[in-house]
Each structure stands twice: as C-alpha cells, then as structure tokens.
Write a structure and sequence with these properties.
mainly alpha
C-alpha cells in the first residue's frame, strides 16, 4: 500500500513531461512573438531611414521597400502561428460557446482540425514556392525570392504543431475526467 505522498509524487512525475512540453510550446510561441517584435522594430527603423533619405538627404534608399515586403510577411506569419498557440487569433465563437458541452467540444475539435489542415497545406505549398524560386532574385536587394515564401513553410509547420498540441491536450484533459 502506498502512502498519499507517494501517490502525489507519482502524479507529479506523470504530468511533468506534459508540463515541460507545454512550457516548450509556450516558449516557442513566445520566441515567435519576440522575433516578430524585433522585426517590427527593424521595419520602423528602415522606414525612418527611407523617409530621412528621401526628404533630408535627397537620396532614396531603394532597398527599404523590397526588404520591408519580406519583413512584413515574417511578422504576419510568426504572429499568426503564436496566435494559434495562445488561442488569441480572430474567431467568432459566440454560437459555439452557447451550445451544450458535447456539441461545443466537437466544434472545437473540428475547428482545430481545420486549422491543422490549413497549416499543413500552407507549409506544403510554401515549400513548393521556396523550391521554385531558389534561382530567382528579388530586384534591388539581390537575395532569393524563396525568402518571401519561407515564412509560409515556417508558419505552416508551427500552426500544425500548435493546433495538433491543442487537440492532444484537449483529449488528455478529457481522458482525465
């Protein structure tokens, strides 16, 4: 017969891997937000340089516009992936939340499955774009057009990961009940 403290410590060890994985996913989402924030600061600085160069120096830095287009895609995609993890993406859920428990849970699973499928296709098609554009260069800045499509792959993989984790965590909570 085991004591209460033995049972409690067994439960702790059972949930520690789950908690560690959860912290890892939260850290990954936080990293996405930090990188997007740093890129946002870079975007603001480069546009400041564009305005300064155009109106003060009378010498417009042409690289800023093309670089900014790439940076905006990274900011958007990383923010979207973090939004899936944090459940802070745009959604209209008043109908779902007004339903009884079972249909509401089913709708949550369906929603997560749609998001997972979307992320998969986003990564898959993004990968095709990356591979097709390896030899093409962005005018003025000179780096590969693949850099524009790479965030689709990164974000797609992260969306699949985060939404799959949401599904698994919901199933584990259901199993505990």
């Amino acid at each position: 017969m085991s004591s209460y403290s033995d049972q409690f410590s067994h439960q702790d060890t059972e949930t520690k891997p789950q908690a560690a994985f959860d912290r890892c996913m939260d850290s990954l989402a936080q990293l996405c937000i930090i990188v997007a924030g740093v890129l946002m600061v870079f975007l603001i600085i480069t546009f400041g340089w564009l305005v300064f160069g155009r109106y003060v120096l009378n010498d417009t830095p042409t690289w800023v516009e093309q670089t900014s287009l790439v940076v905006v895609v990274y900011i958007t995609c990383l923010g979207a992936a973090a939004g899936v993890r944090n459940n802070s993406h745009l959604s209209i859920n008043f109908i779902r939340e007004g339903l009884p428990v079972l249909p509401r849970d089913i709708m949550r699973y369906i929603s997560d499955l749609f998001v997972t499928c979307f992320g998969f296709f986003m990564a898959w098609q993004g990968w095709h774009l990356v591979m097709e554009n390896l030899s093409r260069h962005i005018p003025i800045v000179g780096f590969s057009e693949s850099w524009r499509a790479a965030p689709l792959v990164i974000c797609g993989v992260l969306i699949v990961l985060f939404s799959a984790v949401n599904i698994v965590q919901r199933l584990l909570r259901l199993r505990e009940v």
